[in-house]
Specification:
Shape: globular
Radius of gyration: 29 Å
Structural class: alpha+beta
Number of domains: 3
CATH topology of the largest domain: Thrombin, subunit H
Order of helices and strands: HHHHHEEEEEEEEEEEEHHE
CATH class of the largest domain: Mainly Beta
CATH architecture of the largest domain: Beta Barrel
Strand content: 15-25%
Strand order of the largest sheet: 1-2-5-4-3-13
Oligomer: single chain
């Protein structure tokens, strides 16, 4: 397969553009050819980096526009700028307005030129010339109003009007949610990527009803895994986690169980590992036979020893009871990528030894439940 054709196939695979037969064939190539599998992983990471760079650039631009406008209106205080800094500030603040003004000035110059030539004593003004001048002036007036409306739309779109800035003290209404579980006592959690997609605000509710603010630290859409970080002074880190994160998949027919939040109370479910691959032979996930409802996504899948072997990912709507989970080994893969972009993540210590081995299921659930959270998203 040529390099360009291979790269195109990888992009279609990552974006979900392959039909079922093509996806099964490509999954076979990934299994038999480590280079292709590595290319998929590297290209997925590359696309994610591009997406994050573009989002960061847009956010910085919007925040800069908002800050400059609020500063000009006196809504916030800013340090006084002098010399070259003041020039750059004014340029950035009024570059859009200047461009519009230049356009209007050009129209005005044309109108004045026509006016001078029209009323020149060398040539008496005709009714035709006067009518043309009126049309030019009217067009100029319409353009001024249109440009003014465009300015208002731009300000409204980026939220530069202080009245449109959200009140940070106003209560947040959460519309969707899922489940997440701690992988490090310092406040790092794992959930499904689709649970926090396009989230503007995230809160984590513990089993005892306490709520903590959180942010997205890393997202891997291809594997449907996201890492969240609790950023709340009220959060008290536990000494350790009772369960461990397994670095390999379990065995077919192995008994498993999960905890999640399909409703406001935590819910227990049990079943067994049905297949080592997911939908259409997807090697990134495995199929589990377990009851799952909306809100369970992102919950831990554990074996009898209290080892996390997967993250509940999605439910196949075309077949009742068919549920999939992302393999837990990819948690380690994602953490290694997160460490490259976030130095704070280098201190994450994923538990490798389960303290639940040998306990009966009731005691295991009692030990685990305080580390499983409801993920609330707005």
């Amino acid at each position: 397969m040529e390099d360009l054709q291979l790269l195109e196939a990888v992009e279609r695979y990552i974006s979900g553009g392959m039909n079922p037969d093509e996806r099964v064939y490509f999954e076979g190539l990934r299994k038999s050819n480590p280079e292709i599998d590595q290319l998929v992983v590297e290209h997925t990471f590359f696309l994610q980096q591009l997406s994050r760079f573009d989002q960061t650039r847009k956010l910085k631009h919007s925040l800069n526009e908002i800050h400059m406008d609020l500063s000009e209106k006196g809504s916030i205080s800013s340090p006084r700028l002098e010399g070259r800094e003041r020039v750059f500030y004014l340029f950035n603040r009024y570059k859009r307005t200047a461009a519009i003004a230049a356009t209007i000035a050009g129209v005005t110059a044309v109108a004045i030129s026509v006016l001078i030539s029209t009323v020149s004593p060398n040539k008496p003004a005709s009714e035709k010339d006067i009518a043309y001048l009126k049309r030019v002036v009217k067009q100029q007036d319409n353009q001024i109003r249109q440009q003014d409306n465009e300015l208002k739309k731009v300000k409204s779109a980026i939220g530069t009007d202080p009245k449109t800035v959200a009140d940070p003290k106003a209560p947040v209404t959460y519309k969707t949610g899922g489940t997440g579980f701690l992988i490090d006592p310092k406040g790092y959690l794992v959930t499904s990527a689709h649970v926090v997609k396009d989230a503007s605000a995230i809160a984590l509710q513990s089993n005892d009803g306490k709520e903590y603010a959180a942010t997205v630290a890393f997202v891997d859409d291809a594997r449907d895994i996201a890492i969240l970080k609790i950023n709340d002074n009220a959060y008290k880190a536990p000494a350790s986690l009772p369960y461990s994160i397994r670095n390999r998949t379990g065995d077919i027919a192995e008994p498993i169980f999960t905890l999640g939040y399909p409703r406001n109370d935590i819910v227990y479910g049990e079943g067994y590992l049905a297949a080592l691959t997911g939908h259409y032979g997807d090697t990134l996930s495995c199929q589990i036979a377990i009851a799952a409802n909306p809100g369970n996504s992102g919950g831990p899948i554990l074996n009898r020893n209290g080892e996390v072997i997967g993250v509940l990912s999605a439910r196949q709507t075309s077949a009742e009871g068919v549920v999939f989970a992302t393999k837990s080994k990819y948690i380690y893969t994602i953490l290694s990528q997160l460490e490259k972009s976030d130095s704070g993540a280098q201190t994450i210590r994923v538990p490798s030894t389960s303290k639940l081995r040998g306990m009966d299921r009731t005691r295991q659930v009692d030990k685990i439940r305080e580390f499983v959270y409801m993920v609330k998203v707005n």
